[in-house]
Amino acid sequence: MQYIFYTNQAAEQTEEVVENVSKTVNAIQDHMPEIQTFLFRLVIALIIYLIGRKLIKGLLKVIDKTTLKASGDVTFQRFAHSLANVLLYFALVFVIVGELGFSTASLLTMMGSAALAVVLAMQESLSHFAGGVLLLVMRPYKVGDYISCAHGDGVVQSIGLVYTTIQTLDNRIITIPNGILSSIAVTNASMIRERRVDIFVSVSYHADLRRAKEVFEQAFRTCPTVLETQPVTIFVDDLGDSGVRLGGYGFCPGSDYLATKWYVTEHVKLLFDENGIEIPVNQLDVHLDQTVRKELPDALSGAAGTENRSHSL
Question: Fewest CB atoms less than 10 Å from the CB: which of 98, 122, 178, 302?
Answer without folding.
Answer: 302
